[in-house]
Design a protein that fits this description.
Blueprint: H1 2-7, H2 16-19, H3 34-69, H4 85-98, H5 111-129, E1 132-137, H6 144-149, E2 154-162, E3 166-172, E4 182-185, E5 191-200, E6 205-211, H7 217-220, E7 239-245, E8 252-260, E9 264-267, E10 270-280, E11 286-290, E12 296-300, E13 312-317, H8 322-329, E14 339-343, H9 346-352, E15 358-363, H10 368-372, E16 379-383, E17 386-387, H11 391-399, E18 406-415, E19 418-427
Antiparallel strand pairs: 1-2, 1-4, 2-3, 3-6, 4-5, 5-6, 7-8, 7-11, 8-10, 9-10, 10-13, 11-12, 12-13, 14-15, 15-16, 16-17, 16-18, 18-19
Length: 432
């Protein structure tokens, strides 16, 4: 009964709703003054700036990691083969036959004409310089001579390709001796860390790379990938530009003419045409030889005819190096067997009864060729499935193999009763 009594409203008890009716009143917020509004806006702006700063710092801190983590596949570098000089002459002859004769009035040459010619040459050289760099070895010891003179130990490199992740730079491998770190200085003066991708001590070439993500936009605007020209078309008397470290310091420049294209430089498993010029150089000079259209036609190296000790620019013809450059640009080792040979000429066939192929003049000690049993005096006739009739076809056959794989080399060896067939199983190596 007590519980029921409490539930019955009495005369002194107000209804529940009426008693707490004040709870239904709306409480209005205190009006915000102009100063408070300004302070809140300033506070929000400060928070926004702080958040933006941290976002920017986080972006730049994570950018290299993101680029490395989510980078795409490497693009395969392909260097087109050069046309044969005979084909080029036939094409040029056809164009000349269809061209109309022009009768321009000759103007007398003056000093101003010479200035105009040199200004035009300098413009072309400046454009070509965008495609070359200076590769420097990093030393832990301070080079005080370099600090005083500004001349550091360096070699000229040429920007050969862009594989989508790296800029690839071909240089003389003399800069690799006694060094494990390198930097590359581009035409805009900016210096970046570089890594050695591959080197081939046989040809004396080294391929360096600089990560694209590390290169600033200002540098991209000042550099370009050089065009590798056709050195097979170079003739005696052609005007050329030499750029690089030919005189013992970077950024050297000189003009001259090709004095000869008739001679070669030999190395194990191949040879290379040499573009000789009348341009003076230091004995250890390196650089790049350009034609007047700004195409690379040669790599200046101290290893070209180094025993002659001449002080003129001699360059490896670029067309003979393109296969090696392509292999190294794609991160592969240059195949090496170790034969120093020469083509058996028609005269040798007739006089000494030699079979067609490559006469082995010498074998590199501790080379795959020596391990397989190839000797001086042997004549190589076949490498793998490729027949060999000249040093050019032999070099091509070797470069078509892969380092680390076995290949069957067939040849002939002179015995008591004349030449007999010989066969060797060679494990292809590399000279890195």
């Amino acid at each position: 009964m007590a519980d029921n009594k409490d539930q019955i409203p009495g005369p002194d008890r107000e209804p529940e709703e009426k008693k707490y009716s004040f709870l239904q009143e709306t409480i209005k917020p205190k009006p915000i003054s102009r100063q408070q509004l300004v302070r809140q806006l300033v506070r929000i702006a400060i928070y926004g700036v702080i958040l933006g700063v941290f976002a920017c710092l986080g972006f730049f801190a994570l950018k290299p990691w993101v680029q490395d983590k989510f980078r795409g596949d490497l693009e395969t570098v392909t260097i087109p083969e050069d046309e044969d000089p005979d084909e080029a002459e036939e094409r040029d002859g056809t164009e000349e036959d269809g061209a109309e004769e022009q009768t321009d009035t000759e103007q007398p040459l003056t000093a101003e004409s010479y200035e105009q010619i040199m200004a035009s040459m300098n413009e072309r050289a400046a454009e070509a310089k965008k495609g070359i760099v200076s590769v420097e070895a990093v030393s832990e010891q301070t080079d005080w001579d370099a600090e005083m003179t500004g001349i550091k130990r360096s070699a000229t490199g040429v920007i050969t390709a862009d594989n989508g992740q790296e800029l690839l730079i071909m240089a003389d491998n003399s800069i690799c001796a006694d060094a494990s770190k390198w930097t590359v200085t581009f035409d805009d003066g900016k210096t970046y860390d570089a890594a050695l991708k591959r080197q081939d001590r046989n040809t004396g070439l080294a391929m360096f790379c600089v990560a694209r993500g590390n290169i600033e936009d200002t540098t991209w605007d000042a550099v370009k990938v050089s065009v590798l020209g056709n050195s097979n078309l170079v003739k005696q008397g052609d005007v050329v530009m030499a750029l690089g470290n030919m005189f013992g310091y970077p950024e050297g420049m000189s003009y001259g003419v090709v004095s000869s294209t008739e001679y070669k430089a030999a190395f194990y498993d191949g040879e290379c045409d040499v573009l000789a010029t009348d341009i003076a150089t230091e004995v250890e000079g390196t650089g790049v030889l350009f034609n007047l259209t700004g195409e690379v036609i040669g790599l200046i190296s101290p290893s070209v005819w180094k025993d002659n000790e001449n002080n003129v620019v001699n360059a490896y013809a670029i067309s003979d190096l393109k296969s090696v450059i392509e292999i190294m640009a794609n991160g592969e080792s240059v195949p090496y067997i170790g034969i120093y040979g020469t083509t058996v000429t028609s005269e040798l066939k007739e006089k000494q009864g030699m079979p067609a192929g490559i006469y082995v003049v010498d074998v590199d000690p501790d080379s795959p060729a020596m391990e397989a049993g190839i000797q001086s005096g042997d004549i190589i006739c076949q490498v793998g499935d490729e027949s060999v009739s000249s040093i050019v076809t032999y070099q091509s056959a070797v470069l078509a193999t892969k380092s680390g794989r076995q290949v069957v080399v067939k040849g002939m060896r002179l015995g008591a009763d004349g030449y007999v067939d010989v066969k060797f199983t060679v494990t292809v190596g590399s000279k890195e």
